[in-house]
Each structure stands twice: as C-alpha cells, then as structure tokens.
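Quick one - first record:
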Amino acid sequence: MTVKNLTTYFQSYYDGLMGIEVRNSETASTEKLNYSEIKFKKSKNGFVGEMKVWDSFFTKDYIVLNMKVTEQLCNDNSVQIVRCEVSPKPFKHNIWSAFNEVVLKDECK
C-alpha cells in the first residue's frame, strides 16, 4: 500500500459515492463541484490522512473527514486486510479510542 494508491482509491470511492460526475454533468451552472481533496502521510502504524469531500447526503456542502488506515498482510494465505477508520472528529477526540475496541474476528487465519 502506498500514499499514491490510497489517495487514488479514496478519491475514486468518495467522488463516486457523492455523485460528483453526475452532479457536474447535470448542472447548467458554471460552478462545478470540486473533486475530493485527499492528503495521506505514512505513520508509525500505517497511514493518516484528511479528506475534503462533498457531502451529497446530509449537509450538501464540503466536509472534512480524518482517516487512519492500517494494513495487515497474511503470508500463509495471501490475504491483505485493510482497516479504515474515518471520522469528522479530530484525532484527539475520544471516538478514535473507541475504534481500538473494534477487533477483527478472523485475523490472518
């Protein structure tokens, strides 16, 4: 996993989920929505990042989401487990501690 790959994957996912292409093609306005802006950096345990995305579901405005991504490779069975934690809350908020309580049921069996 690389910063470039993560950026590409998340941008494609969120732009598709939020319907950026559809919205831009349907509007007669010259003011088009911007594509997701994503910044990842390598961290001690994987990657941390921030995304500015269009929220087509609730706010109808741009929101900032914080992310942590970890990767686990299981060599015995060639499985890659990618765990993504996403929240609009800053990294010091207690929601990030709550993510630590989530345990994968079948880690590298």
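second record:
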Amino acid sequence: MLTIHIELIEAMLAQANQDHPIETCGVIAGIEGSDIPSRLIPMRNVANSQTFFQFDPQQQLQVWKEMAARGEEPVVIYHSHTSSSAYPSRTDIEYASEPQSHYVIIPTDPSYKREIRSFRILHGMIVEERIRILDKHKSTAGLSKVA
C-alpha cells in the first residue's frame, strides 16, 4: 500500500494539469528504507510526448545523486496519461527500473475516470496497490481501488 500526504497528491495533480496535453513526470523522494514519500521533484519529459514520458538523463543523474547524498530514494515515480486510462502501458512496464518504488499514474483526459492509481512493477509483472491518503487535518483518509 502507498501511504501519501494529500499535499503531494495535489502537487502531482497540479503539475499534470499544467503540463497537459504532454505527459508530466516526476519523483517523490523519501528517506531510504522508510517507504514514506516526502519530497516532490518535478522532472522534465524530454520526449515531450502525449503518449509516453522519458526523464531527462542529465536531470535524472543529478536528482539520483542528490537523493543519495540526502539518504533518500525514489519512493514514488509518477507520470500522467493524457489520452488513456491510469494503467501502465507497455513502455511504462519496459522502463520501470526501480523495484522498490510505487508507480503512480494520473489520468488527465476527462474521457477517463479521474482516479490516480498506484502500481508495483517488477520484471514485467504489474500489481495494483491501495493508496492511503493522509489528510492535512486528520491522521488518515481512505481512498482508492484495488483491481
């Protein structure tokens, strides 16, 4: 299960809506081994595509070095789908290279259900997971759907 603060959800949604119709992308870092996302890092989609994303390799190298120096790891890797549902594409599966990360997909096309979803992707296997959202004023607020 992914446990995440509402402020991080809101920041991902804002970025996805701002970048639409290009797929947005980014990372949420957290303390190594904690599985708690805490620091959102928007990334550039160098593919500049409506159908897939690719991190800027130089930016990614810099961000991963910075995370390592801070004792962090990529807890969430997120991107938007601008013309399909929030389910990993073949390209998403092929490029999933962080087995400990939660892969979050944000749909921005109003034709599809506007529900963010989280997945674990390992060796081509996809497992959807629940999302527990921590509210600003309450300790937890439930949400999400498990396939």
